[in-house]
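User: Please run a holo structure prediction.
Assistant: Happy to. Please share the sequence and the ligand.
User: Here you go; the ligand is beta-D-glucopyranose.
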Amino acid sequence: MTTFGRFDDAAREYVITRPDTPLPWINYLGSEDYFGIISNTGGGYSFFRDARLRRLTRYRYNNAPFDVGGRYLYLRDSASGELWSPSWQPVRAELVDYRCRHGLGYTVIGGRRAGIDAETLYFVPLGETLEIWRTRITNRRAEVADLSLFSAVEFCLWDAWDDATNFQRNLSIGEVEVDDGVIYHKTEYRERRNHFAYFACSAELAGFDTQRDAFLGAYRGWERPLVAESGRSGDSIAHGWAPCGSHHVELSLRPGETREVIFVLGYWENPTAEKFDPPGSQTINKARVRDVIDRFRNAGEVDAAFQRLRDQWESLLDSLRVATPSEHVDRMVNIWNAYQCMVTFNLSRSASSFESGIGRGMGFRDSNQDLLGFVHMVPDRARARILDIAATQLPSGGVYHQYQPLTKTGNDAIGSGFNDDPLWLIVAVAAYVKETGDRGILDELVPYDNEPAESPLYEHLQRSMRYTRDRLGPHGLPLIGRADWNDCLNLNCFSETPGEPFQTTENRQGGVAESVFIAGLFTLAAGELATLAELHGHRDDAATFLDARRTMDAAVRAHGWDGAWFRRAYDYYGNPVGSVGNQEGKIFIEPQGMCVLAGIGLDDGKAETALSSVEAHLATPHGIVLQQPAYTRYHVELGEISTYPPGYKENAGVFCHTNPWITIAETLVGHGDRALDYYLRINPSAREAISDQHRCEPYVYAQMIAGRDAPAHGEAKNSWLTGSAAWNFVAATQWILGIRPEHDGLRIDPCLPVGWEGFTATRRFRGASYHLTVRKSGGVQGRLTSLAVDGQRIDGNLVPLAPEGATVSVEAEIDGPT
Ligand code: BGC
Ligand code: NOJ
């Protein structure tokens, strides 16, 4: 609990109790096709599938004040003329009892002013391409209140990039229709778009507006629109300029009376042949959409849809529930981290307070990793996602760095040739098959580059391997290409031109830059693929992959080891990066994490040594920084990493995505205390108490926390869309709690801190439900000493697969070091 808010775990909500949070604290609406981001004061925007290409409403990033553009409501007291917003923004008049409850897929914002309480529930019903704002207004005065309620959204002309830049066209193309109180935004519907947006209201209207500048008045902003101030709508029809949607509802409320008004903002597509009514006209055919609109203008329908959303989350979260001695572990694993994994799975890195929705589609490596944290909740969607991703792979085994969710085709817009990319597909497929047992996916025919020629998914995975093996450098380590996981380690770029993008500028040819990180990832992936090959009946392949794995492991030990830690890379000229001999950037976090995860150095002490070095050189109270010493000047041979001021982002920030690799590595060497300690340093709930310093939402991971070289050490940035979500979920659940899906059963392999005396969990796995109790004697860190399944003692720590529908009781004990 802080001055900004508190967790309500029973309701699975974060309750914000003052509107002026350090930054907008946002939530997401929608989980299928229609999405929105919504801040604690009603800011944000909506889109259909693709935040760039099908944007419904406008939003102004990097604005002062923050967070302009949203789902706005205004209340005006007819007697006094007083005007306010029940979600505080945009009017920002003070509210009594302001509250915002961010829940799973919904947000409720409310507050009271002048004896009028208003509370709005925002959500996207399952299976629909629309959002609901259900407002309840209560008169707590002793006398009748005469009020005007205005809604307001500003429409985006679909392609958000074009919308924000191409004004010579945009200001002339906006078109709307208003019919039966419904505002239809139909820019470009006359030509190649078959889709339109609509904004409807359940109440009878006193007026409406669709021309933004008529609603606002010249030289006015959203904080004081002329129409809302005067209480009179203009019934304006937009022709060009900036179309908006505003309804005006007059309410006369008796003392104690509550009225409910429902607004529906939605997206609709008509078949080409049925676009117009009458055919040949330019009027939208509303035959199909009208039913949907009418349905959701009905309160009972809205209640039922909201209940379905709540039930869905109940069931998704049922796949894993834990009760541990740490409320931060429980809260994150049971609620917020699981939820954030859904959001990253859906949106990759496209739309947040920090990702503008126009910059990036679905990242290849990002989406494969995001799947790791969500596959247990939605195996079917994970399967479809894997096939979509694999279909963008090129015949060479290389991949596009991203694809657009709308078209599902890959593109090079944010660069190509990141040589780690293809390997992540293997990691994702292995996780999916372990979770589901669905080896049939390996036989699925999947195209390359979305062209007709296809081959089984298994062949795609082989090509991923081959891609790395065909690109080895002089030390037998993988060539880095444009960069690896660390987008900013651009060892071949040598950029001297201001503003040139490091990820798309042509690389200098002829160098030998190699990545120890990719070597670690390859080693991990080769092991996974060998097992898949074996299970799939390809014995020879399995042997080949294991052989490749051994060779790579040996190359890392021979050329990737620096004496006290793993090196990071070799540069264009073959000089080590991340070595004691470097002046800056002597030690990096990524290879310590990835090499140990791959098992390198677990048998000869290198892993332990590397992790001690991490603790000595990289760990801070706010998490583990990416490298040290930070780069203090631009190194042309290293690229973007050295462009960030020390302590930010890849230049020695706490890049949260990488921390759980170290957490996992610590469990692999049996250090339960350190594993939990690292996990908690960046755990959002554990950082709630320092919200003033952390500043981002306390319920989700941020990509970065400023490192110790930064003046604002401990300040987070880039919340929500980050690989930190999936990897922290994996670290906490599969490695600290040790509940790990494997091909032939559920591994129970906790690595707990000394202070814990155990925990309980229930895990849905391949149709059965496992109820786990782990008991640990105080004072030890060790591994499992006994395991009983349904009362029967079994050897080892693998719980065999139970039949579908079964409920299995699992009792595990840890009573001393093993
Ligand atoms: C950011 C990275 C990001 C990359 C690619 C860089 O500017 O610092 O975190 O991965 O751009 O978009
Ligand atoms: C963010 C990118 O989305 C991710 O793919 C990358 O691994 C990290 N930045 C580190 O550069």
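The chain is about 25% helix and 25% strand.
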